[in-house]
Design a protein that fits this description.
It is a single chain. Helix 7 packs antiparallel against helix 8 and helix 9 packs antiparallel against helix 14. The protein contains 16 helices and no strands. By secondary structure, it is an all-alpha fold. 42% of the residues are buried. Helix content is 70%, strand content 0%.
Length: 427
């Protein structure tokens, strides 16, 4: 007769270590830094090194959550739309013709989502903003330093990082995140974060102002039309939120309706005057390339309209149908340059519907919380979601790495603050 083995128990000393406040803070900052440095890590120690780091961080985060399981409030933490989207991505393994690639992509997506959930659950919002601020200062300063080295001092591209050395000509610069559009978007995220730090006085005033100047300089040098358009929308959203937050409680619903109506009218005129908008952003050539790519992809969606080809995240040009999509000005596309079209291609109409509900509901939740809660930190998730939604029309930013990480954090924070399931339990 065999004696059953006792269940595996984690030593209390180990749980105590991972559950401590200093370790939680350090782990949060390390996770945020890893996500923003994924391009650098891949470029230096390749995919195996990045995967090993993510596995280690996932294990550490799991131990930290286990140590703090009794003190954390789990009600409404994981929105059903997030579970549906991740679940549909995983389900696509059953019909994907590149199931092995889909499996690795789904696991990669899940790992980053888990780390984002950990950050959102384990830390207060102001602590998350501080972690982002500390990391983004390093990202931007290092990006500018390497651009100065490449463009002015040695006058040679740093090819393995994708830095072209264009600083002497006023840009565009790519920094350490791979492309000018990505650096421009990161600069906008940094601007939002540094502004919250300045408003909340969570860092010295001089540090916050200096950080904003660095973010603005990096933003201008990218010469990114995508980031420029997103920044305009974020500034308008910021002004709207300031007006709503300063209004009295009884006037806020009327102002919200007026803003919603103005947004619909603005979208209508933006579409009607889209040619002039594109020209004003100096994006004519880039938009034409994107539009041609979208037309090709939409033609492919008719092959598997409901379920899509299977989740892949960042495209792999050695598998169908991605190798069949024409190059863009001599470059092989690694995404659809539109999150919604990308989801449509990979997960079909069903996945697209889930994604639209997922990101739309999160934005509404975060906006309501930012409008009604006194703490100014609640503005941070709302503005990040505005940025993510806008950039999703011109980049697949929301689906992988930095964008997916930020999206999940904002979605989870919004669900924590405004969960309909928690409301049902209270009835």
């Amino acid at each position: 007769m065999t004696v059953p083995k006792p269940p595996l128990r984690i030593p209390s000393q180990l749980l105590g270590f991972f559950g401590s406040a200093p370790v939680t803070s350090a782990l949060t900052t390390t996770i945020v830094a890893t996500i923003f440095f994924t391009h650098v890590i891949r470029s230096t120690i390749a995919w195996p090194g990045l995967v090993a780091i993510l596995i280690g961080l996932t294990l550490c985060a799991a131990l930290s959550l286990a140590a703090r399981r009794d003190e954390l409030n789990w009600q409404g933490v994981l929105p059903l739309t997030l579970l549906l989207l991740v679940g549909w991505s995983a389900a696509s393994l059953t019909w994907s013709e590149y199931s092995r690639a889909s499996l690795t992509s789904v696991l990669y997506q899940l790992a980053i989502a888990f780390l984002a959930v950990y950050v959102a659950v384990a830390r207060d919002l102001i602590q998350i903003v501080r972690a982002f601020g500390d990391v983004l200062r390093v990202v931007l300063v290092l990006s500018l330093a390497l651009e100065i080295l490449s463009g002015l001092l040695i006058d040679t591209p740093i090819s393995f990082l994708g830095i072209l050395g264009n600083l002497a000509g006023g840009g565009p610069i790519q920094g350490i995140v791979g492309t000018r559009n990505m650096l421009g978007i990161v600069a906008v995220i940094a601007g939002i974060t540094f502004a919250i730090e300045l408003t909340t006085r969570s860092v010295p005033r001089g540090v916050a102002i200096g950080s904003l100047i660095v973010a603005g300089l990096a933003f201008l040098l990218t010469r990114s039309p995508v980031a420029a358009g997103a920044a305009v929308v974020v500034l308008i959203a910021s002004a709207a939120l300031i007006g709503i937050r300063r209004a009295s409680a009884e006037h806020r619903p009327i102002i919200q309706l007026a803003i919603a109506a103005a947004s619909v009218v603005g979208l209508f005129f933006a579409y009607a005057l889209r040619a002039r908008v594109v020209d004003s952003l100096n994006a004519g050539g880039e938009f034409e390339v994107r539009y041609a790519l979208w037309q090709r992809i939409i033609g492919l969606t008719s092959i598997n309209p409901l379920e899509g080809f299977g989740w892949i995240g960042t495209w792999r040009t050695d598998i169908a149908p991605y190798f069949a999509i024409d190059t863009l000005n001599g470059r092989e596309p690694t995404s659809a340059l539109n999150a919604f079209i990308d989801v449509w291609l990979q997960l079909g109409i069903v996945g697209l519907a889930i994604f639209i509900v997922f990101i739309g509901l999160a934005l509404v939740r975060a906006w309501i919380v930012a409008s009604n809660r006194r703490a100014v930190t609640h503005v941070w998730p709302a503005l990040l979601l505005v940025l993510i939604v806008v950039t999703s029309a011109a980049e697949s930013f929301a689906l992988v790495e930095i964008g997916w990480f930020c999206l999940v954090i904002c979605v989870v924070r919004a669900a924590q603050e405004l969960s309909w399931r928690r409301g049902l339990r209270a009835v």
